[in-house]
């Protein structure tokens, strides 16, 4: 792989998290938290990323209010709708929304993503999550949050149902034949007819097949269940790694898993997160990172850390070293917590930080890799990971917005282009085009299909 | 009411049903069924209605594929998302989407509508339905479709939960105080804490209160349960009447019901459907209607009629009179079917049509009032209903699109303006402004609230 750098192209994705991924971004004078719940703010970010020919923008999501809301701007609009709004003012950029298989009905969610793909002319992606936040369950009438294995069992059925629904209309099911009065050929429309352990869905979707066949399936879970699910279903994977070696191990593990499922490894794109602080010199970049770290509210960080560690921390200990044993694995943590704990345990082991230093390390991007450096240094890191079997591209997680993405597209993207690693402009119109993913064949297609009768389908 | 015609203003709403409300609209050369699943088609219609200062556009919906798809273009995009797309290319027009309380979780749906209201700067409306189509149940894992009383019981709880969620952030809950690091005041954020018979929702919404307080609540059920529900909850009501006297009876019944619930009658707008064929002369208008009727596929119409009548019909009988007893009330029909049957029974009784004539009568707008006439005649009908206690405005249901709405705005709207019944342009920015509805007071508000910290909130 690393011997074809001129032909293989990076995927770059803008992960939009409110006014930035740094937890204190909203306090920085350059960010515009007052506009967080407006369409215009999101339009501006998406249009900026589109001008740089990014593959997609992406929103995380969970159907529950963050308990840290007092000190963190962790409220947000529903992402599928926000992307429908963005779709109307953009023409090329991919639109990836997170949605939960645990807390949605598949018929509703398949419709929402099919609609987003139609409205955007084939630019939709679905980041499939099972929702780790246990407080969400009580928003949906459940007494207990389903455990990870049950959540993933439902998720597997959910993806099967959703893909059946997206396939339910063959590409040539719409006739729109004014002369005969036949709008659709019922023999080319197929009921989902799914009866699983968790889900039952009888009918066909009430809209034609989406332009991309189905939205690009994205996944981000790092647990064992998450990796197995990703190997089987995902077409793109968002992942968090601090170290090249960890990222390489994950990359080979997933690509091997993908092959075991009889899929082509190049049809699954692995995109680690990177949260860059950029400066004219490394010292300037580090000073910028420090400026944000100094805006953090320790009370907030300690609460977050307490949840992760299942231990309590005291403000009085901020300048003492974090005890090495606090992040040892416990048997009763949830799987998702465990994979995030592993990241934190690695930081504590390698860097032996004070509590304050650890909070600052975690303030950046919740376990994703924060880099502070010159554009050349950041481009070097990206190039190294891309050409050494650790990444097919990156999920760019600016610590602050819009400034952080502006700095990246202005200073880093030109370097990547000069190295032949990133396109000058779009060469296709769909998210699948940008990522180099095939359009899935409809499971009911038996013969070469005729030209569809509908625009954009 | 009729003695203040100069001050009271009509509400006009564009009900977008694919390429028109006439069942054969898609076969007409003027319609563009090929664009039915594109954003651009919907943008164009919404922008047209906005130039005419209409109150809103509206989409019906149901989470199930119509069995008549072979002969009817009865497939469609999900309306909330479609309206989010429309919101991005419009500035004033209201955006009303139908969504089912039977087949959505309230936390998800409350978020979707809160987001639509934020993205549009306060233009969202929710047409609350319980979904009469029994086939939908099997798309959601249910063995049986809940009966109307159970559906309405759940709907009542659903609206209570949804309004609690929309109120969960007081208008001044967001502090966004960079200096202190406090983003929100947790004492001004309230959990839904709802435990009903059908629904349980624990937490608060994960986004601030929508600009309108909550989306405008719309309702359309004509059954007894539907009327009681509307009197209690609805702020606008879509209704179907063939005759002035029926519309007047409905109007007084609802306004009286509204008062019984302690609500102000002027805070509930009653909007009958009207589907106009316009011509330079009445004969031209009738010829246009005939042109569409002749495009109908009798096989389709007979199937629809069979479902409604719970009887079978034969193509050989098309030119014989419809037996008067076919639409007598039966005990086991669903309530929704019963209210539609009553409309059809009235037509059969009054007009004694042949089967073909009845199919043509029903081809227009599924029981809504079809009028064929000159712009003056249509404006006269609208004026009569508006000034004689039958309507606060109209849900305009063009038989074909975009031509039918273009004819209406070009020829009828100027007459209504000349009579002082319809505004020249918008006087406000939200859907509540257009309809003359108050912004609901937050149930948790105790003192005069300070200025909100967020744009558009």
TrEMBL record, chains A, B:
GO terms for molecular function: monooxygenase activity; oxidoreductase activity, acting on paired donors, with incorporation or reduction of molecular oxygen. Keywords: Flavoprotein, FMN, Monooxygenase, Oxidoreductase. SUPFAM superfamilies: Bacterial luciferase-like. Residues 26-389 form the Luciferase-like domain. FMN binds at residues 61, 98, 152, 223. The keyword Cell inner membrane does not apply. InterPro entries: Diverse_substr_monoxygenases (IPR051260), Luciferase-like_dom (IPR011251), Luciferase-like_sf (IPR036661), NTA_MOA (IPR016215). Gene3D superfamilies: Luciferase-like domain. Pfam families: Bac_luciferase. NCBIfam families: FMN_nitrolo. Belongs to the NtaA/SnaA/DszA monooxygenase family. This is Monooxygenase. It comes from Cellulomonas cellasea DSM 20118. The lineage of its organism: Bacteria, Bacillati, Actinomycetota, Actinomycetes, Micrococcales.
């Amino acid at each position: 792989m690393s011997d074809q750098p001129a032909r293989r192209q990076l995927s770059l994705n803008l992960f939009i998290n409110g006014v930035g991924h740094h937890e204190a971004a909203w306090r920085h004078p350059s960010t515009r938290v007052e506009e967080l719940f407006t369409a215009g703010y999101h339009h501006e970010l998406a249009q900026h990323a589109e001008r740089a020919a990014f593959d997609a923008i992406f929103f995380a999501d969970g159907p529950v209010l963050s308990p840290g809301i007092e000190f963190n701007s962790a409220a947000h609009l529903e992402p599928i709708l926000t992307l429908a709004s963005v779709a109307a003012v953009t023409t090329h950029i991919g639109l990836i929304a997170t949605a939960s298989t645990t807390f949605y009905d598949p018929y509703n969610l398949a419709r929402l993503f099919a609609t987003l793909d139609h409205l955007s002319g084939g630019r939709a992606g679905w980041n499939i999550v099972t929702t780790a936040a246990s407080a969400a369950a009580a928003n949906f009438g459940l007494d207990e949050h389903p455990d990870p294995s049950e959540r993933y069992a439902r998720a597997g059925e959910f993806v099967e149902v959703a893909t059946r629904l997206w396939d339910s209309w063959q590409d040539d099911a719409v006739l729109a034949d004014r002369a005969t009065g036949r709008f659709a050929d019922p023999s080319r429309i197929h009921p989902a007819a799914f009866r699983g352990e968790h889900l039952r869905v009888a009918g066909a979707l009430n809209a034609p097949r989406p332009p991309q066949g189905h939205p690009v399936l994205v996944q981000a879970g790092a647990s064992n269940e998450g990796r197995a699910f990703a190997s089987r279903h995902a077409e793109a994977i968002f992942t968090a790694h601090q170290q090249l070696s960890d990222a390489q191990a994950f990359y080979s593990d997933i690509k091997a898993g993908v092959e075991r499922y009889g899929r082509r490894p190049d049809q699954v794109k692995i995109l680690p997160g990177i949260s860059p602080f950029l400066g004219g010199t490394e010292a300037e970049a580090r000073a910028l990172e420090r400026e944000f770290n100094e805006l953090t509210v320790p009370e907030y960080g300690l609460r977050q850390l307490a949840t992760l560690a299942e231990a309590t921390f005291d403000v009085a200990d901020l300048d003492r070293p974090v005890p090495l044993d606090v992040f040892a694995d416990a048997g009763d943590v949830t799987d998702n917590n465990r994979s995030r704990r592993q990241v934190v345990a690695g930081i504590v082991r390698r860097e032996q930080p004070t509590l304050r230093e650890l909070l600052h390390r975690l303030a950046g991007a919740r376990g994703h890799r924060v880099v502070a450096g010159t554009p050349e240094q950041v481009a070097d890191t990206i190039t190294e990971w891309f050409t050494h079997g650790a990444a097919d591209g990156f999920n760019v997680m600016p610590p602050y917005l819009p400034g952080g993405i502006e700095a990246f597209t202005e200073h880093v993207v030109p370097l990547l282009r000069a190295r032949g690693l990133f396109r000058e402009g779009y060469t296709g119109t769909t998210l699948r085009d940008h990522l180099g993913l095939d359009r899935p064949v409809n499971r009911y297609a038996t013969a070469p299909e005729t030209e569809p009768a509908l625009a954009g389908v």
